[in-house]
Design brief:
This protein is an alpha/beta fold. Helices cover 27% and strands 22% of the residues. Strand 2 and strand 3 form a beta hairpin.
């Protein structure tokens, strides 16, 4: 299969990184899949496979990256400087950060209108997108199985100013019309969310893919993990979609500005307390305490902000 570069998301910011000499001797390709031993790339030359060992630092590769390949060469010259990148703290005891996806324009934060809906988890995704300067869209699935999908939508709308929220039935293509407005030529969308919220079904109906899906449990509303690796998919109406494995516990890396942007309702009260060193606990003249007591600030939002900021402090302390 031959791809044209604009279809894959090629932009002037990438073209500018190629010198005239390189343009005649090489070609760009986009990483479509990364496996333990090899990666698959798409370009106007077709589909190619490269061994992971030919890259200088495989940990610094992400699905969605653009790479420069010499004509007839077996080793890519380099990875292009990214326009955007989604990064999470690696799970377990691993010290390096984990790249989720690169060169993403819009992030679909997918959750469902059932027990999976968790405002604090969605806030983590929003902070991740804000830090990367990627537009977020909250996608609430399984609206057909909920008696009150509007209540879930109203809760999601409270999580960030001017946030776009769409309720869909992922199995009904007609309900995906609003999402398809993002599926334009050259636009890259990434999906992120827990397992079992309908990401694979969304992919099936937004692309020509045939993802394996599993029924959710009637007891806890949780689904089985069906996506095991990140991959590119061609959208039916143009553009690219990046699927990601289900992430239930997202640990943020350096996202201080992203947290600030996500919690503007909290940060508006910071810095205006009576005392500059206010701990927002028992001090008099505390703007946070006053806002909580008056109802101007939601307690759950304040606690969520504190938790994320605490994780940031731990992250920086660990790096030192």
């Amino acid at each position: 299969m031959i791809f044209n570069l604009p279809q894959l998301g090629w932009k002037p910011c990438f073209q500018q990184q190629i010198s005239p000499e390189e343009e005649n001797r090489s070609y760009p390709a986009r990483i479509a899949q990364i496996h333990r031993s090899h990666c698959i790339v798409w370009s106007n030359k077709g589909i190619e496979t490269f061994e992971i060992g030919v890259f200088s630092d495989p940990k610094d590769m992400a699905v969605g990256d653009w790479i420069l390949i010499p004509n007839g060469g077996e080793r890519p010259l380099r990875i292009f400087e990214r326009e955007t990148v989604l990064v999470r703290k690696a799970a377990g005891q691993r010290k390096h950060d984990q790249l989720i996806a690169a060169n993403v324009d819009t992030l679909f934060i997918v959750t469902s209108c059932n027990q999976d809906f968790n405002a604090s988890r969605i806030e983590r995704y929003l902070a991740l997108a804000a830090e990367a300067r990627i537009r977020p869209v909250i996608v609430l699935t399984k609206m057909d199985l909920s008696d009150d999908s509007d209540s879930y939508k109203n809760e999601a709308l409270k999580l960030q100013n001017d946030i776009r929220v769409e309720c869909v039935n992922a199995e009904d293509e007609s309900s995906l019309a609003a999402l398809k407005t993002f599926c334009t030529k050259g636009h890259t969308i990434a999906l992120i969310g827990s397992s079992g919220v309908g990401k694979s079904t969304l992919i099936n109906n937004l692309t020509d893919a045939d993802q394996l899906t599993e029924k959710i449990s009637e007891e806890d509303g949780k689904g089985k993990h069906t996506t095991t690796s990140r991959s590119l998919h061609l959208l039916q109406d143009g553009g690219i979609l990046i699927d990601t494995p289900g992430i239930r516990e997202l640990k943020l890396t350096e996202t201080e500005s992203g947290i600030e942007d996500t919690f503007e309702d909290v940060t508006q009260f910071l810095g205006i307390c009576k005392f500059k060193n206010c701990q927002h606990e028992t001090e008099t003249g505390c703007a946070i305490k006053t806002a909580l007591e008056s109802g101007e600030l939601d307690l759950r939002r304040w606690e969520s902000y504190q938790k994320l900021q605490g994780e940031q402090e731990q992250h920086y302390s660990f790096k030192k």
